[in-house]
Design brief:
five-stranded parallel β-sheet; Rossmann fold; 32% helix; alpha/beta; elongated
Length: 323
């Protein structure tokens, strides 16, 4: 029987052609065509055990573009021997650059200045006074691919003083020049004028930036989040911004997402907002698409994918099905 790949996000024709040589490829995301698939791939839908069981025992892989896996029940997939594959390298550069762009935009009052010059009313000269970055302190929570690139740009390029925290960073890891290490997240929030978040959304990181930690930040500080909305307690952030404790924030992600129409953040001039587009660049999209296609191709050929989020499952259902 011919293998089947079910997708609910687009791939370029050249990549679809490559996969079509190995399997039937469903590209319209029609749920009625889901059962019997060997591979499923999507972005927005939540993939829980119920959906996996609906696909049936042929399902060997869930292929996801990008890094985040918070829309996949990883435990449910592992229990069923289903490989979960992502493309963690693909959006790293784009996301790191976007985080730095948010940092600079909010510090330099870019959006307030843009609004004023387009005729926005009630903006005083004092509202346009920015914050210089040279020699200022930047705290980074999460020192993976994205966090390391942000640290490199800000320490070596802008010459900020960078401090990082990551609980899984090996004790003997040698920090690069201009980058110090913190032993706990509280230190990051209390000792840095800017804090940027680059951690996955896990039960342990939900609301990591809570009201207590936001109040540890010195008055006039800034928060940047291009990771996941749930890492920040949004109600607490709104509260400390309204009080003037924080000077501003730059956000690419929200909780819920997209933000509701009455979300106070939408009316705050000291907040720069973008609609979860950090990885949405020409190079980032190309790498996510090609990486996902490669992961799928390898499974269809009975080979180990390049990236497996639950490697303990390998080879999982592939072995049960004889590859």
């Amino acid at each position: 029987m011919r293998k089947k790949v079910w997708m609910e996000w687009p791939l370029p024709p050249a990549l679809i052609s490559r996969l079509s040589a190995l399997a039937e490829v469903v590209t319209d995301g029609d749920l009625d065509k889901l059962p019997g698939s060997d591979v499923i791939s999507g972005i927005g839908r939540y993939y829980d055990g119920q959906l996996m069981d609906r696909v049936g025992p042929n399902l060997k892989q869930i292929a996801k573009p990008g890094i985040g896996l918070d829309n996949i029940d990883l435990d449910a997939a592992s229990a069923r021997g289903i490989l979960v594959c992502n493309t963690p390298d693909a959006p790293s550069e784009s996301t790191a650059e976007h985080a730095v762009a948010l940092l600079m935009a909010v510090a330099k009052r870019v959006m307030v200045g843009d609004t004023q010059i387009r005729g926005g009313e009630g903006i005083e000269r004092s509202d346009l006074q920015g914050t210089e970055l040279l020699g200022r302190s930047l705290g980074i929570v999460g020192y993976g691919r994205i966090g390391r690139r942000v640290a490199e740009i800000c320490a070596q390029g802008i010459r900020m003083n960078v401090m990082v925290y990551d609980p899984i960073l090996p004790e003997d890891f040698v920090m690069p020049k201009g980058v110090a290490r913190a032993d706990d997240p509280d230190t990051i929030f209390s000792q840095n004028r800017f804090v940027t978040l680059h951690t996955p959304l896990l039960p342990s990181t939900r609301h990591l930036a809570n009201e207590r930690r936001l109040r540890l930040m010195r008055p006039g500080s800034y928060l940047i989040n291009a990771s996941r909305g749930g890492v920040v307690d949004e109600a607490a952030l709104i509260k400390v911004l309204r009080e003037g404790h924080l000077a501003g924030a730059g956000l690419d992600v929200f909780d819920p997402e997209p933000p509701l129409a009455d979300n106070p953040l939408l009316k705050m001039r000291n907040v720069v907002l973008t609609p979860h587009i950090a990885s949405n660049t020409d190079a980032g999209i190309d790498l996510m698409q090609s990486g996902t296609a490669e992961n799928i191709e390898r499974v269809l050929l009975g080979e180990r994918p390049t990236w497996i989020a639950n490697p303990e499952v390998w080879p999982g259902r592939m072995a049960q099905a004889g590859g």
